């Protein structure tokens, strides 16, 4: 893997050189991990100072936690002498103004105070904005990254499958969410990819719902959204079920509609398709049925070292899909006071010659009565 990280840093170095920057200071944890193989708490990465080795600067000696990754052996590791120091400021101080005049920084991540501190220790350096260069580089995944996502999806499917085999009536949303997160870890996850959502009855299908003390009742819709964090890579799955012997007619009708919308979104995932066209494919069936006003702002998003990455599958999103880009497709409808349906998968964009989009989360999308 060392060569992989060196190649990634080389691409960033070339991009910086083309933009007129002599070096780059990377501080966003996901970007540090992508380029360095690890992101110990508080670490930053200095890339491209003349002929020196790239430097990973840490506020304290890395603890070796597997969840933080393993630093690339090709890097120089520098631990600050005191834990109160700022690695970003220390990194800027390493840059020799005789060999580098411009340092690119991630302004969208640095605070104003840190930016000023960097200027104070390196007044002769011109600070430029690295922007989202690393995030853009991260969008297309290599097969090793996709393999990590595939394992994260398998863990998520296992945790959800086990929950469905247990008794649910009478248990609270909060309790079920905690149990799902425990099962993720039991099956090998470093932890949940994000805060697990369990929503029942009138809460079901509500975007961003946080589990409450409401108990599962007969006749409820039950919406679950979870994901595993495996070696830093995060996936997402969401399913909706009915509690009881059989769903009501309105529940079947609503579920079938959301399922059709989700299928349309999945089928649109081909290289070269505009992000907004994927969103439109999933949104159109729901709008035609009269549910356009309450829909979420987007149909899906990229996943990887963060659970919410580029691209954004939204009406105004600019850009087109590439192969080997993992995304979610997650349409839903919520009816206030009644509940709703959300169906959410993680897929990898593949060309038709390779079989089309690769579905990573495979738990059944049949409307199950539990």
TrEMBL record:
Keyword Signal among record annotations: no
Region (Disordered): 191-216
InterPro entries: Creatin/AminoP/Spt16_N, Creatinase/aminopeptidase-like, Creatinase_N, Pept_M24, Peptidase_M24B
Highest rank taxon of the organism: Bacteria
CDD domains named among the record's database cross-references: APP-like
Coiled coil segments of this chain: none
GO molecular function terms noted in the UniProt entry: aminopeptidase activity
Sequence ranges assigned to domain Peptidase M24 in this UniProt record: 148-350
Entry-linked Gene3D superfamilies: Creatinase/methionine aminopeptidase superfamily (3.90.230.10), Creatinase/prolidase N-terminal domain (3.40.350.10)
Descriptive protein name: Aminopeptidase P family protein
Lineage summary: Bacteria, Bacillati, Actinomycetota, Actinomycetes, Kitasatosporales
């Amino acid at each position: 893997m060392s060569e992989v990280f060196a190649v990634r840093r080389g691409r960033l170095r070339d991009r910086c050189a083309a933009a007129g920057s002599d070096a780059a200071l990377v501080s966003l944890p996901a970007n540090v991990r992508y380029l360095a193989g690890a992101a110990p708490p508080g670490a930053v990465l200095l890339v491209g100072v003349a002929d020196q080795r790239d430097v990973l600067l840490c506020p304290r000696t890395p603890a070796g936690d597997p969840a933080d990754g393993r630093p690339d052996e090709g890097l120089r590791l520098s631990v600050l002498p005191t834990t109160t120091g700022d690695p970003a400021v220390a990194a800027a101080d390493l840059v020799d103004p005789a060999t580098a005049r411009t340092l690119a920084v991630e302004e969208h991540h640095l605070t104003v105070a840190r930016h000023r501190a960097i200027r104070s220790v390196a007044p002769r350096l011109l600070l430029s904005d690295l922007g989202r260069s690393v995030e853009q580089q991260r969008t297309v995944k290599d097969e090793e990254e996709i393999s990590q996502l595939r394992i994260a999806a398998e863990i998520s499917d296992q945790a959800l499958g086990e929950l469905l085999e247990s008794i649910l009536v009478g248990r609270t949303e909060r309790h079920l969410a905690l149990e799902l997160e425990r099962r993720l870890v039991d099956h090998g996850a470093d932890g949940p990819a994000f805060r697990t959502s369990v929503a029942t009855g009138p809460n079901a299908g509500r975007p961003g719902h946080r589990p409450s003390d409401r108990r599962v009742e007969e006749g409820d819709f039950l919406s679950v959204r979870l994901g595993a964090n495996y070696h830093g890579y995060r996936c997402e799955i969401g399913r909706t079920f009915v509690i009881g012997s059989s769903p009501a007619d309105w529940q079947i009708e609503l579920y079938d509609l959301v399922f059709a919308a989700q299928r349309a979104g999945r089928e649109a995932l081909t290289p070269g398709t505009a992000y907004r066209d994927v969103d439109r494919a999933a949104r159109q069936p729901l709008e035609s049925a009269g549910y356009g006003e309450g829909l979420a702002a987007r149909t899906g998003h990229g996943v990887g070292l963060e659970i919410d990455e580029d691209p954004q599958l939204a009406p105004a999103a600019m850009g087109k899909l590439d192969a080997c880009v993992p995304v979610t497709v997650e349409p839903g409808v919520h009816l206030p006071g009644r509940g709703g349906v959300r169906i959410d998968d993680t897929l990898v964009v593949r060309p038709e010659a390779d079989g089309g989009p690769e579905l990573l989360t495979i738990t059944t999308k049949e409307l199950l009565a539990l």
